[in-house]
Design goal:
Blueprint: H1 2-13, H2 20-23, H3 30-38, E1 39-41, E2 50-57, H4 65-77, E3 80-85, E4 99-102, E5 108-111, E6 116-120, E7 129-135, H5 141-154, E8 157-168, E9 177-181, H6 207-216, E10 222-230, H7 239-249, H8 260-277, H9 281-302, H10 306-333
Helix pairs in contact: 4-7, 5-6, 7-8
Length: about 325
């Protein structure tokens, strides 16, 4: 039965549909047909050695910094859209409503939640990119994740990097905080130098953790990157944080990312913030307290871990013993 399902999926990509109900009349094919029809392809690119970048709009996308980061990559690399997930089965449209907008020609356009896959092929034999930009669903998370997993598997994914942004008690007057975490001590060839902390959070989780867990079953390593947005800023977009997230993502991409325009947008954004908050003394006092806490946290973050200090001490003592032993041997020889 599993072989038949696998063959049916393969054939369906070529435009053929096998009626398995005739072969297995007692099988419940409803879920399978629904899952298959929800994933829509316009192309089947052949990718290799792929880095998979994924972000979702909604609560894990403060100031749209995560999804905007990946959209900037799509724009710069002219990445090609090749697949999407139909939203019908995965959203409560009373909660995640479609959006109506006016068009230049006077018509009206209705936009439903989008979940889109893009690809970019490296010209120099580097790592190809698979980029997914979606909206965190309300329903059927496991089915939804299986569809993403299917595309990742077909795209020869070697590393998953999820991107998010959250509201945090950080000041806008300091460098944006971008943190990374990973359960993998080795993210793969070319990424040995990247060392992220092991996550220690426990509690309700988001789709990033669900997808990481799903791909981990195939042995695919993963990292999770989060930008921290000042919670007191009610802004639709934060180019300063987007710039910082892309700077962090650069190490996973085999070609340079042009951050010039974002740097200009960031500078203008910061100047506007200074003017907007200039006469708000209450906010100014609160920001100063955040600055003090931020500075102390950064000092702690940059301090060596206790384990590293112990290892450094052990290495020093070992070198001392080796030196003393060498000197003793030389003295006895004399």
């Amino acid at each position: 039965m599993l072989d038949l399902l696998s063959n049916a999926r393969t054939c369906s990509r070529s435009g053929y549909l096998i009626c398995l109900s005739a072969l297995c009349p007692n099988a419940d094919m409803g879920d399978w047909r629904g899952n298959l029809s929800a994933l829509k392809y316009t192309e089947h690119p052949i990718l290799s050695n792929t880095v998979f970048l994924a972000a979702w709009g909604g609560w894990p996308d403060a100031a749209e910094s995560a999804t905007r980061s990946l959209r900037e990559l799509v724009r710069q690399f002219s990445a090609t859209k090749f697949a999407s997930i139909d939203p019908e089965d995965f959203y409560d449209f009373a909660e995640q409503r479609p959006v109506i907008s006016n068009q230049a020609d006077g018509s009206r356009k209705l936009t439903w939640p989008k979940n889109e896959f893009f690809y970019w092929k490296a010209d120099d034999g580097g790592r190809d990119l698979l980029i997914f930009i979606g909206v965190e669903p309300n329903l059927k998370w496991r089915t939804y994740t299986d569809l993403i997993h299917q595309v990742a598997n077909e795209s020869d994914t070697k590393l998953l990097v999820t991107v998010g942004a959250l509201l945090d008690s950080v000041p806008h007057t300091r460098s944006p905080r971008v943190t990374g975490s990973s359960l993998n001590t080795n993210l793969g060839k070319e990424f040995e130098h990247i060392k992220y902390a092991v996550p220690n959070y426990e509690g309700p989780s988001g789709l990033t953790s669900v997808l990481i867990d799903r791909l981990a079953q195939d042995g695919v390593p993963a990292a999770s990157i989060w930008g921290h947005s000042p919670h007191y800023l009610q802004v639709a977009q934060n180019p300063t944080l987007t710039h910082a997230i892309l700077s962090e993502l650069q190490q996973f991409i085999s070609v340079p990312v042009d951050l010039t325009k974002l740097a200009q947008d960031s500078e203008e954004f910061d100047e506007n913030l200074v003017r907007a908050l200039a006469d708000q003394q209450e906010i100014e006092g609160y920001v100063k307290r955040l600055e003090e806490r931020y500075d102390s946290e950064e000092e702690y973050r940059q301090s060596p871990e206790p384990a590293a200090l112990v290892q450094e001490l052990e290495d020093f003592l070992r070198q001392q013993r080796d030196t003393d032993s060498t000197e003793e041997n030389e003295d006895s020889t004399d």
